[in-house]
Amino acid sequence: MALAAAVALGTGTLPAAPASATGTPEDGGLMVVLDASGSMAEITPDGTTRIAAARGALDAVMANLPAQNRVGLRVFGATPNPGADSCTDSQLLVPIGTNNRDELRAAVGRYEPAGDTPIGYALQQAGADLGQQGFRGILLVSDGIATCEPDPCQIAAELTAQDIGMRIDVIGFDVDAQARQQLQCVADRGRGDYLDVSEADSLQHALERLSTRAFRPFGVVGEDAAGTVDAADAPELVAGTQYADELSGDRPALRYLLQREQPGSILHVGITGRLPHQGTLSIDATLTTADGTACDATTVAALGEERYSIFTGRLSAAEGSPSHACATAETLLLSLEAAAPPDAPVPFELRILEEPWPSNASTLPAPTDAERGWSLGIAADGATGSLVGGASLNDAPLTEPGSYTIEMLPNEFQFFRVAADWGQQVRVRANLSPDLPAPADAWGILQVLDPVGADVGALLATDADGTRWAQPLPEPGSAVAVTTAPVRWDGDPGMLKRPVVAGEHYVAMGFGAAEGTPPMPITVTIEVIGEAAAAPDFSGTPDTAPAVAEEAPAATLDDGSLRVLITFAVGGLIAIGVIVLLVWLWRRATRRYV
Q1: Interior angle at CA 19, CA 13 and CA 24, nearest 5
Q2: In this structure, are residues 332 and 288 in contact, taking their beta carbons and an 8 Å threshold?
Q3: What is the C-alpha to C-alpha distance for residues 93 and 113, in angstroms, rounded to an integer?
């Protein structure tokens, strides 16, 4: 996963399983859309034709898809000499359905490269093939740029407009820079992922990942939050329900009303999303009472390069007392505002947790920082077995502590769930194989998110070797590592985003490398340390006394820690400078057209 740079249970109600206004996964399905244009007859870098590589990869993937999954197949550009019909040359070879794997594999073997590349028209038809109900996915595989109108990027935007049930993933197979730019745009506007591959093994891996992903909850899911610009018209949101919405050029500021069920409770709001385009995003998020009393504020930011596209943040309303207005107000106002209007819609999720004030608050240990120079107690050797992560928080598999081997393509993100109780810490290390050369321009990022999706990895706490959460992977065996502090209840979390909620946390792994890099084996080792302890008691009368802070030893910085701190400080100043410069350039550019 990429960094989401956020400036900064008793009877608590955790978000329920995401619900979609468009139906269930059983109503929708996956439509595979394949390029059969003449360029598919060209030779790939590994010596086979593109069409042969596509046939082999699709045959293997179709054979392993569960029979109950709804899948269909459409091709475009398959008609020799189509003449005037070249821009509508797309055929539905296998309608969407179950138990049709033999038919799918036979159809894949029949199609030949022949005509033009009407990607936009094929996407329109695929949208109609899938209908309007349920979670629906289009998986586009193409080796070139569109040669016909309509513009496929515009069609992708139209298909997903106001429809959180639709997603378009794209695989660019041995493409040039111009085609890659267009195909990435299709994935961006389609709220999907773009994977770039150049040979048969990578194509099969990409197809397996994206086709499997289509039958899990999509990356951003939830009930439509329908935020409004005017607070007077803001929709009411309740704890225990996951919501989805999007910021856009037309909707750069959104307001919501959060309903409290129990006086004296703490409301936690998690914001999680993905920036679907290059550039920057900065969201000012505030939580206030109806009369304007400030409860919490943060700035959630992301850089739109492949390795910096996920953003997270958390707001908490309590202010240190169950009698404070932020803990007693029946309604709170949540405001999200983009510093600059995004040039494409940016989808995000809202997770809302309401947690009663404990009756033993004064005896609970106060939150602490994570230990520096920590070590894993599990060997990072992949001995637990292989594992496939989810594509988002919503489809992350529940994972026991252990050391696993995963495979990742460049610019891919994988997510895993792990349980962490009160008093426990999550520690994770991910490393390249020590027996294989490190790919060019390799980079790794490792995060731990709390149950509402907020980043709670300690940025300054490295492992014993000095490895940290985000860094280049220049050599065989290079690694990234992250730890959390112990999960502790906090009645006044403010701007300190430590782990303050027990439950299932999320491990997010991001991997970047040069385009065309084949699937890379990565060892991910997950450890949960500490005995479950110091749990809040939510059954009695709220304890109004503040929590007792622990005596902490005097902080000292060794040379390595000091270098890390200086590096992060300098890096932070540079990042802020870049964002300010980009915003200034954008504003200057827009003024030219006013």
Answers
A1: 145
A2: yes
A3: 15
